[in-house]
């Protein structure tokens, strides 16, 4: 079974600085998708960035980028120029590339990292 | 506007009193699922449905039931709630992998905070 591990329960960053959130995963599959979700105090789940395992290029979305190391099964999120609005719980998630049954669209989540942004 | 709605958003109930949390999506998605979020555990899938009348257990199905009589609706039923079901619940929907075009985007509802006393 696949697992996702976020070893940093809490992180803190100064406004305008850069912070990196860690995520590791375990799988025997070669085809899969990885995601970072943001959950602000409103509790809404917001997709931040996605990465397809078959793509070697790291995904980037504005101030958010990932460092995807497939061999090491690592998927870290880097937030540049941190803003007060970035304060939230961040979840790393895995989705199988298999196309059958319940594996089709199921997300496996890590335990989350609570990010505080200091002004 | 594409969205997933859940009702109620907040609910406080007592042990053993049956309740239903509704979920509805307006995107004609085939796939719908329920997750629960608990501190230190992240989100875990409770049940999922791949289409009308097709449902199956996720990772933590004990104490829950679901039904999928219409494509847009996927209610979560707690027949006899217990305090260990106090949690934050999310409904999510997405297109089936076999659909064309397929997108891996999952749409989440706003969450339902349930407290069972």
Explain what the structure shows.
The complex is a heterodimer of chains A (119) and B (117). The mean pLDDT of chain A is 93. In chain A, 0% of the residues lie in helices and 51% in strands. Chain A has 119 residues and is mostly beta strands. In chain A, strands 2, 5, 6, 10, 11 and 12 form a six-stranded mixed β-sheet that branches. Chain A has a four-stranded antiparallel β-sheet with strand order 3-9-8-7, with no helix packed on it. Chain B contains no helices and eleven strands. By secondary structure, chain B is mainly beta. The N and C termini of chain B lie far apart (36 Å). In chain B, the strands form two sheets. In chain B, strands 2, 4, 5, 6, 9, 10 and 11 form a seven-stranded mixed β-sheet that branches. A four-stranded antiparallel β-sheet of chain B has the order 1-3-8-7, with no helix packed on it. Chain B has strands at residues 4-7, 10-13, 19-25, 31-38, 42-51, 54-57, 65-66, 76-78, 87-94, 107-108, 112-116. Chains A and B meet through strand 10 of A and strand 4, strand 5 and strand 9 of B.
